[in-house]
Amino acid sequence: MLLIAACTSSNKKTEETKSTTDTASTTLIPAYTQGLDEVITGFTNAYLLRNQTKINTFIHPDLGLYVIYRPGAADTYQKIDHLDFDNPTPEHFPYTTFEHNYILRFEKLPVFDCGKEKWDKRGFFCDTTTQANQLTSIATFDREFNGVSAREVEEVRQIEKNTYRVILTQNENLIFHVKKYRDKWYVIVLDRAYGWCDA
After folding, report:
1. Quick check: 65 and 79 in contact, CB under 8 A?
2. pTM, rounded to two decimals
């Protein structure tokens, strides 16, 4: 009887461990991403503290920063060369600041459900297993419906190639994309549309 009880207990522990691992599966960080966490946390801290000088060190002067926003039913973007907290992009949507105590985790990103108006999980995440493509999707849509040139779509595609998406969500959210360019990480997209469902 003791043997059966011990086996049952061992099986339960294995199942519990497996279930915990499945729900909180953290992705291993590949060698290519060395230094990525410092840029993500540095940009986030500068943004939330509204540190104008520091935040612009994370934006490459040639790549610029693409700001995604939603002026109506569809998302659009605007390329800027620096971030100015006193003059937000778009003008009617001030940059928010908030406090959080999350640790950056490299795993699957949270998803926002407009029906429930909430995230499926909260925290500070970067997914290094999936390439970000939000900017390319917008440019491709604009090519078909708004007359954006094929050249611009290709430029956006190249800019967004090999980028990772970062989501920090609490009551407010901060969403951006990072890219390695000439052996250094930069922020190339600030997504101000996702996580909001009003058009």
Report:
1. yes
2. 0.81
Element (H, E) at 10: helix 2-23
SS3 23: helix
Which amino acid is residue 18, in one-letter code?
K
Helix (H, G, I), strand (E, B) or coil at 35: coil
- pLDDT reported for residue 141: 86
Burial class from Cβ neighbours inside 10 Å (0-12, 13-18, 19+) for residue 93 reads middle
DSSP class per residue in 135-195: HHHHHHHHHHHS---HHHHHHHHHHHTTEEEEEEESSSEEEEEEEEETTEEEEEEEE-STT
Evaluate the CA torsion angle 84, 112, 37, 41 in order and state its sign. Answer: positive
| DSSP per-residue codes, 40-98 | HHHHHHHHHTT-HHHHGGGS-TTT-EEEEE-SSSS-EEEEESS--TTS-SSTTSPPP--
Most confident segment among 39-53, 66-80, 141-155? 39-53
For residue 198, give the DSSP letter: -
Token pair in block for residue 27: 């992705």
Spatial CA neighbour of 132 closest among 199, 77, 89, 88: 77
Question: What is the DSSP annotation of 93-137?
Answer: SPPP-----PPEEESPPP-EETTTTEESS-EEEEESSS---HHHH
Q: Residues 127, 107: contact at Cβ < 8 Å?
A: yes
Length of the chain: 199
